[in-house]
Specification:
Hypothetical Protein Aq_1857, Chain: A, four-stranded mixed beta sheet, three-stranded mixed beta sheet, 2 helices
Length: about 110
């Protein structure tokens, strides 16, 4: 059996949330794009947006019935990351378990690698 290792994995809860978001997406959306931007006290934060096309060199993860596109500039920082979706009494949202993180700010808004 030939098994390909993906850059990023997705939990069942995250896949369910992506499916829910895709039902509300504008026409032409093909999945969610994950990226990074400079922000916060630690340097980087995750971005999530609807994707209408696949960019050149973009990694595409298709798992559990959803499509996640990884911005090519972010790929090397996201290798091995697991995306989860968590809802509790205080907040709800995607949670990124990234083995490449070296530090995270106290508020949880940003991280460094």
């Amino acid at each position: 059996m030939n098994q390909t290792k993906t850059v990023m994995s997705i939990t069942d809860a995250a896949a369910d949330r992506v499916k829910s978001l895709m039902t509300k997406a504008e026409d032409g959306a093909i999945g969610l794009r994950i990226g990074l931007r400079a922000r916060g006290c630690s340097g980087m934060s995750y971005t999530v947006e609807y994707a209408k096309d696949v960019k050149k060199f973009e990694e595409v993860v298709e798992d559990k019935g959803v499509r996640i596109l990884i911005d090519p500039a972010a790929t090397m920082f996201l290798i091995g990351t697991e995306i989860d979706y968590v809802e509790d009494k205080i907040q709800s949202g995607f949670v990124f378990r990234n083995p490449n993180e070296k530090a995270r700010c106290g508020c949880g808004e940003s991280f460094s690698v």
